[in-house]
Write a structure and sequence with these properties.
Chain lengths: 139, 495
């Protein structure tokens, strides 16, 4: 028998937004890097173009920011709580068009932004990135 | 009583090969394989001479379930259905199950389990090379609670000692070979609590090398050997705050040093000088992501060739440390690819040594909260969706099995971890995604999990112990994990 509580949960589950999974047009983070963490041919060919990349939002450096780090797998540990030696080699810095709304680190996101390559220190956070998406939105 | 009679009769019938010829299935290939296995097993004779060399290979987090996944993956990569595959150590003649709990933990951690295997005693979770009288983190108790570890014991017998890990060489399992620490996290001096007089684990490794207790050390973890103001060969800074550069200290005492695959291949393996090889700032890369650094099998080969120069023999502890990490991530693809790398290390260790004088023990320190769904047909990709059983054939029917929610599910799931189907942003309510086979078999895919945790947990299930060589036959039945030490010690010291 379906009790009221179960019915409520079932209804909530039905309306949950499911994670957005890859479509052929989405780029996976690993496709931007070679194994030695140099940029791939694909990354070089897409420089300064708007692309869609899939990944996961690492726990943000600060609240009310326009910046977060995208990781290829859920980032169980805050990368900013350790030294830079603990950051994954293949992260992607995301500079967003709007203030970020923090997403669970287990939720797959699709980020759209302009691909920038080369080292840059973020003025607000001091975070140094080798590759970024700028003017980014995500869902 | 009547129901037992047919079984008794059947047992009598099958107790001899001649009897087996009288059953209708005598020509069945499974039946003949079973008979062949009887012949093989009855030919096994215990080796009771002293072991010149002892090698223990530990795949961290590779319990019976995880090992099953690697067996199927390895077989499927080699073109068979997986189930029939045999990993190199699964041919070993002796087998036992180990109970892995720590004295204060039903679910063990690698520091306590490493101490059990390398010192012969069970102790608390999170401590290295000390007994259970120590309260975790109390440095003042370290000296009094320290127990003699395998590097000290084997050195005293005249053997050389090696330790290898794909994790940081200061991580719990390798540290238990050579160190004594009130906490596994005291990897370099910056991690010690204020006023703690206990040396950090990295400095203990260097002191052990200076003392001749460790002759070969290979793994990751450069950051714990250099200062925070020092940049390593790959541009990463260290952690130390005491001004010591342990890599320089190692070189000063005559050790050879390697930091990538090229410098490793240039090492002199004549045993004339100790070897310190640190291939990453932190852990070495997963096998799937590996570049510019040696495989576990290559490190194993290097270490054995270097240690074989000692006529008195050697002890070598080898850890596949990242099977555990991939399980913690809930990412089965890297679990099984590192599992295969471990199997290849076992194979090369076996190839480079003789059963007559070398005891090889293959085991895990603990299992994980990994679980397996059914009912999947033969040949179902172990990292992918569960396909149904074909009643008219052997291979799966290609139809994904679905839950009551109508959605496919993977063969493997985790009870907890980052692959949780529950959503923090909707009050921890959740629903499973409608996964495709392409998504499930992607190398970065996280198998679905139930309980949300940032890092998937160990579990307390038993792990297997596979063994061959002198006194390997002592490993049978269900044993306490610290018994492994006693078998190795007995084999190395028996007159």
């Amino acid at each position: 028998m379906l009790k009221r509580r179960n019915l409520l949960i079932a209804a909530m589950a039905w309306t949950l937004p499911f994670p957005a999974f890859a479509t052929p047009s989405a780029i996976r983070m690993r496709d931007l890097y070679n194994k030695d963490t140099s940029f791939s041919e694909l990354a070089l060919s897409l420089q300064d173009q708007r692309i869609d990349v899939e990944g996961f939002m690492a726990p943000p450096l600060k609240a009310d920011a326009t910046f977060f780090v995208l990781t290829k797998k859920p980032m169980a540990v805050c990368p900013f709580c350790e030294t830079d030696a603990d950051w994954p080699d293949d992260i992607l810095a995301v500079h967003t068009k709007r203030r970020i709304k923090v997403k669970p680190f287990t939720l797959r996101l699709r980020v759209s932004g302009v691909l920038e390559l080369g080292s840059l220190r973020d003025a607000e956070t001091g975070f140094v990135s080798r590759v970024r998406l700028t003017d980014a939105t995500y869902r | 009583m009547n129901r037992l009679l047919p079984m008794t009769a059947l047992t009598a019938l099958m107790s001899t090969t001649a009897g087996a010829q009288n059953v209708s299935q005598a020509d069945n290939e499974w039946f003949r394989a079973g008979q062949a296995a009887i012949a093989q097993k009855t030919a096994v004779q215990p080796i009771t001479s002293q072991a010149k060399n002892v090698i223990i290979l530990i795949a961290d987090g590779n319990g019976v379930g995880t090992n099953y996944a690697t067996r199927l993956w390895h077989g499927q990569q080699n073109g068979n259905m997986g189930d029939e595959n045999v990993l190199p150590y699964e041919t070993f003649p002796h087998l036992a199950l180990a109970k892995t709990y720590n004295v204060n933990a039903q679910t063990p951690d690698s520091a306590g389990t490493g101490t059990a295997m390398h010192s012969g005693i069970k102790t608390k979770a999170g401590v290295v090379g000390v007994d259970e009288t120590l309260n975790r983190g109390d440095c003042a108790q370290t000296e009094a609670a320290s127990v003699t570890n395998m590097s000290e014991i084997m050195t005293a017998t005249g053997r050389s000692v090696g330790v290898i890990s794909t994790a940081r060489i200061t991580h719990a399992t390798p540290a238990s070979v050579y160190a004594h620490s009130a906490d596994r996290n005291y990897e370099s001096n910056d991690g010690l609590p204020e006023g703690c007089a206990q040396p950090d684990i990295a400095s203990q490794l260097i002191e052990a090398m200076k003392a001749g207790h460790v002759d070969v050390a290979m793994g990751g973890g450069r950051r714990h050997f250099i200062g925070k103001d020092v940049t390593d060969e790959e541009g990463k800074t260290g952690k130390r705050t005491d001004g010591r550069n342990l890599l320089e200290e190692a070189r000063s005492m005559g050790a050879q040093y390697a930091w990538n695959d090229e410098t490793a291949s240039a090492l002199a393996l004549d045993g004339s000088s100790p070897i310190l090889a640190l291939f990453e700032s932190s852990h070495m890369k997963y096998e799937y992501d590996r570049t510019g650094e040696p495989s576990l099998a290559e490190m194993t080969s290097t270490a054995i060739r270097a240690l074989q120069g000692n006529e008195g023999g050697f002890f070598l502890s080898i850890e596949a440390g990242r099977v555990d990490h991939a399980n913690h991530d809930g990412n089965l693809h890297r679990v099984v690819t590192d599992g295969v790398a471990f199997a290849e290390a076992v194979a090369i260790a076996d190839e480079l040594t003789s059963d007559e004088d070398t005891l090889i023990v293959v085991t895990a320190d603990h299992e994980h909260a990994i679980a397996f769904n059914g009912y999947c047909g033969r040949g179902t990709p172990i990292t992918g969706l569960c396909y149904g059983i074909d009643g008219n054939g052997v291979m799966h029917n290609g139809e994904p099995q679905t839950g009551a929610d109508g959605k496919p599910y993977t063969v493997v799931g985790y009870l907890n971890g980052a692959g949780t189907v529950l959503r923090e942003d909707v009050n921890w309510v959740g629903a499973r995604g409608d996964i495709t086979q392409d998504e499930a078999t992607d190398p970065d895919y996280l198998q679905q999990a139930l309980i949300p945790r940032s890092s998937e947990t160990h579990s307390g299930e038993d792990v297997a112990i596979y063994a061959k060589g002198p006194w390997a036959h002592l490993l049978n039945g269900t044993v306490e994990q610290n018994f492994i030490f006693h078998v190795m010690h007995h084999a190395a010291t028996v007159e």
